[in-house]
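Can't paste images in this forum, so I'm doing it all in text. The chain is below; anyone willing to post the predicted structure tokens underneath?
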Amino acid sequence: MRIPVILLPLLLCIHFSPTWGKEDPVYEAFKDPPKEMRPFVRWWWNGNRISSKETLRQLDLMEAAGIGGVEINSIKMEGYLEGFPGLEAYPALEWLGPEWTQVVLDTVDSVKAREMTADIIVGSGWPFGGRFLPLEEQSQRMRLVKVPLAGPEDFDEAVDKLYADTFLTGVNAYKNRDLVEPNALRVADIRLIGPGYGLSGFDPGIDLMPAQDDPERVKAAIPAGPHTLYIVFHEQGYTEVKQGAPGADGPVVDHYNAKAVSHYLEMMASRLEAATGQEMGDLFRASFVDSLELDHANWTQDYLEQFEARRGYSVEPYLPFVLDPERPVAQPAQAYQEVVRRVRYDYVKTLIELFEERFLATYVNWAESHGLKARIQGYGRETHPLHGSMLPHLPEGETWLWHDSDTNRGVWPHSTKVNKYVSSGAHLSGKRTVSFEAMTNAVPVFRATLNDFKRGMDLSILDGLNHPILHGWNYSPDDFPFPGWIRFGSFVSPLNPFWPEFPRFSDYVGRMGSLLRNSDYQAQVAVLSPRADEWAKHDMLYQPFPEVVEPWYQYRLSRALQKVGFGADYVSERILQKADMKAGALHYGDRSYSILVLQDVISLEPDTARCIQRFHEVGGLVVFVGRRPSRYPGWLHYEQKDAEVAKVMQEIRGAQVLDMVSPPKEQGVPIPGPRGKWLDDSVLIQ
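Text version of the structure:
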């Protein structure tokens, strides 16, 4: 097989077995890839209208096409099919009910008989939850509503009316109000902000909460002139499972609440194990957690106590302004921004710590206790894009197919921005298998070809991903009219005209997987992005499609380095603080890096600055692109810590530092698309 030219730079960064040859098991697997190296499919059990007879028929088709495994994924029936004549012939089975569980058991037995692999999604749709969750275990959010007013006036308005209005900060109201319990919404804070706010420094405004005498209304005496009411709503159960199947639809679980997460996971495991008589690890390779789309969840019951214990002060006076990133009533003075950005950093850091401790660790520990591997798309707003892929056994990224009718580009693949973080997390934690939701397709569903799959696969490989979970295979009865039950995805189906050639794609995936999953990616460069500055300025951004990218080349530099033969991994402040600096390199686990690149990083923890200094002192090459770090990102004792960071940075001098390298200018032909501009990485190579 000829190796595609696009993959040659990557192969320079990979260390293969020194025993390559006829008897080498890697070579043998390359010639005839085993099933675990071949593509898997996300198997949408549409509406749970399933039967064992039909799942076994579909498994025969998958096996014949070279598909190596399935992810059982219960999901809501697509709306256009709900009223289809004859649908009643396929009764919906309730998630975790006895009939559903029997189909699962029959299906898994058949998967094993074919020497294929079965994974199962936690819950249904994304993120997981259910109508059975008590209110205290449902997701929580603090949401800011701003009401501009012109005094003098006596303001008096119903809470429900204010909540429904659209004076807000880009965050939606309840997704499904009929699922919400009556006591799930309350006013948590009310501030009156007057003219000139922020011009002379931070001002918490006038606290109006003590003056409120009716929980159903907001009242305020507004003095003359322009003012703004800042109203913070505390919400529980405000969002629902996206595409939840019967029995697993309803409010989302509070991912910052370890007790709630554990209750949910144990409920699923205990009911499956009791019904099947087997441990979950005997049934499945892994459990799977899909996209962390928590709709701006940013609170939990003990958040105030946790913040104060971890950060050393109370967040309450600052909360309304932390929730309002870069949207002041008036143009603020630098002193105002200084305070609010520092507190916002502390606020986000606390959330991310709680998420990792209470959700990620709980999920991984639960999986291990039931003999499973924990597979997860460990990214979103709520977690560090690197750390979210280090703790799970099977980290996962995502690659999309898009279509832009305005430019007539046809179908084009996109390895999303988070993918390099996912693979870097896998490398740093010693994992070789890095899966990805492959060819995610919500637009050109019937237009994608195997050539598009091949291009998407190659782009993903270049970002360090090596095992596609195809999006997807729709459970659809054989006797249903063409094209069957289609939710979305790339129509992986025997009804697709490309189906006779699909085994060739499976062979390609299997062969590349056999090489890459038996090899170690070699990287000389560690890249640190300005994550602290991002949190301080913009709050938590959404991965894999961040609303803001600063600097503009943040997610492109590693790809550009790879094009000229330098392997690169992303690192974090935590990685630098835990690394061993010796013999001209940064060592973390089995990884070592001789070059550290900081991408326009302004803020650092003092301990991180000292680690960079030690790396420089042992002979490592430090490259500052753009600005040199000069400050601490948090609030408490910031003047002292700012001085520490600035002092250390000034001490890092010498021939082994490329100081203040000018950042590349954004250039090239912009390509419009549904997620913004996409630029050619080659503009970074000067």
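DSSP finds 18 helices and 23 strands in the chain. Residues 111 and 117 are 6 Å apart (CA to CA).
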